[in-house]
TrEMBL record:
Source taxon at top rank: Bacteria
GO cellular component terms, semicolon-separated: plasma membrane
InterPro entries: Poly_Biosynth_Transport (IPR050833)
Keywords in alphabetical order: Cell membrane, Membrane, Transmembrane, Transmembrane helix
Membrane topology: Multi-pass membrane protein
The organism's taxonomic lineage, starting at the top: Bacteria, Pseudomonadati, Pseudomonadota, Alphaproteobacteria, Rhodospirillales
Residue ranges of the TM segments: 77-101, 107-129, 141-161, 167-188, 284-300, 312-335, 347-367, 373-393
Membership in a protein family: Belongs to the polysaccharide synthase family.
Compartment(s): Cell membrane
Record's protein name: Oligosaccharide flippase family protein
Keyword Membrane: yes
Length: 409
């Protein structure tokens, strides 16, 4: 009798389905739009990621991390993130003209305004997604991804075919967020409209660590894109941004799932069992990630030529380096999740902030020499970070081991 897929398999299928849809859609739009339009859209999406990290991600993560999640906490988190998202939309409308003017890109203004419309759906969707993961309903989440991805990218491809490439890329993200919330609302019962002041205070305190980590993580991952866009312009950002997207989709599909699973495993591990669980999850990640990223590095030129066309051939010059950095980053994500699950969230934020400053300095120094040097600087900082995270996790495991050894059997 065939064995049914377990929860871990459905979790990977869900994440891989999302990332595959994102990747195929982005490649198709990039081929139709060209580097400059793609780079302009990337600026709008970078702004969106920053606002989400500042306003929403910490709260939604705090809801999911609660050891005992009551309906009152769930309802407060859901509606609080909806209200914060609405405030973010209003903030975007206020600052978008100034941001577009500072960038010298009038075409950026409508993209920022459109991107802001996704914020009211992002937080509530993340809360429901996290609730489903707590309940291990990964099969439903995989179905959700299928229902959401196809129509969102279908509309985006239609816009790109009509010559609205930059608009298409941003519209895809907005549609994904709202369709995601709608699908989750169909699959799971929405919490009632309730806000509890005490729960808001608890979530705000719990969100501080998560929001800080998300913000430093955003800067660490996007530092080179921010600098490339500011210094070299949208066409260079389009080239570099698409290369990073190719790699990041693979990182999210592998490292993102693995880090979420190891966080759950270690947060609820029995005393003395954390090291074995971490080693098991690390082996599984390496078995999946190593052939993927090495294959991308070796096949960069034919992939770019076949999928994107001649306008994008410059990307093949530095995509192999980005692919190697992606392998390192996937492992680093798993170690960061392990560190947070073992109670090292505060030190993880500080270490990530220091690595971010190092990355900004390295990328700024490399930028005058071209995008290949920027990619090499990013790889170098990723390797330094891997050593840092490995040492910190080792120390944390030793501390946890000593504490568990003193506990009565």
């Amino acid at each position: 009798m065939a064995r049914r897929p377990d929860a871990r398999a459905w979790a990977y299928l869900d994440k891989w389905g999302q990332q595959a849809g994102q990747l195929v859609g982005a490649l198709a739009i990039a081929r139709l739009a060209g580097p400059e339009a793609f780079g302009t859209a990337t600026l709008a999406l970078l702004y969106l990621l920053l606002v989400q990290g500042l306003l929403l991600d910490g709260v939604s993560d705090a809801v999911v991390r609660q050891r005992h999640l009551s309906r009152r906490t769930l309802s407060t988190g859901f509606w609080a993130t909806a209200g914060i998202g609405l405030a973010g939309t209003g903030l975007t409308a206020l600052v978008a003209p100034a941001l577009a003017g500072a960038a010298g890109l009038p075409a950026l203004l409508p993209l920022l305004l459109l991107a802001g419309l996704s914020l009211p759906a992002t937080g509530p969707g993340a809360v429901l997604d996290g609730l489903a993961r707590r309940q291990r309903r990964f099969r439903r989440l995989a179905l959700r991804s299928l229902l959401v991805t196809l129509p969102a990218w279908g509309v985006a491809l239609w816009l790109a075919w009509r010559g609205e490439g930059a608009l298409a890329l941003v519209a895809a993200q907005v549609l994904l967020r709202w369709l995601d919330l709608a699908a989750l609302a169909l699959l799971f019962r929405l919490p009632g409209p309730r806000l509890d002041r005490g729960e808001v205070a608890v979530l705000a305190r719990a969100a501080a660590d998560g929001a800080g980590m998300k913000l430093t993580g955003f800067l660490h991952l996007q530092a080179e894109r921010l600098l490339v866009g500011a210094v070299a312009g949208p066409a260079a950002l389009g080239l570099y941004g698409l290369g990073r997207r190719l790699v990041d989709n693979a990182v999210f599909a592998l490292g993102g799932v693995a880090s979420g699973l190891v966080f759950r495993d270690l947060a609820h591990a029995r005393p003395g069992g954390a090291t074995a669980l971490l080693a098991r999850d690390l082996r599984r990640l390496l078995l999946a990630a190593t052939p993927l990223f090495l294959g991308l590095a070796l096949l960069s030129e034919p992939l770019v030529r076949l999928a994107l066309g001649p306008d994008w051939l410059a990307l093949a010059g530095f995509l192999p380096v980005l692919a190697l950095a992606g392998l390192v980053t996937s492992v680093a994500w798993l170690l960061i999740a392990a560190l947070r699950a073992l109670g090292g969230g505060g030190v993880a934020v500080r270490a990530n902030a220091a690595l971010t400053l190092l990355k900004l300095a390295a990328v700024a120094a490399a930028l005058p020499f071209g995008l290949a040097w920027v990619a090499t600087a990013s790889l170098g900082v990723a390797l330094v970070g891997l050593v840092v995270w490995g040492v910190m996790v080792g120390k944390r495991l030793a501390i946890v081991g000593r504490i568990s050894g003193r506990q009565p059997a």
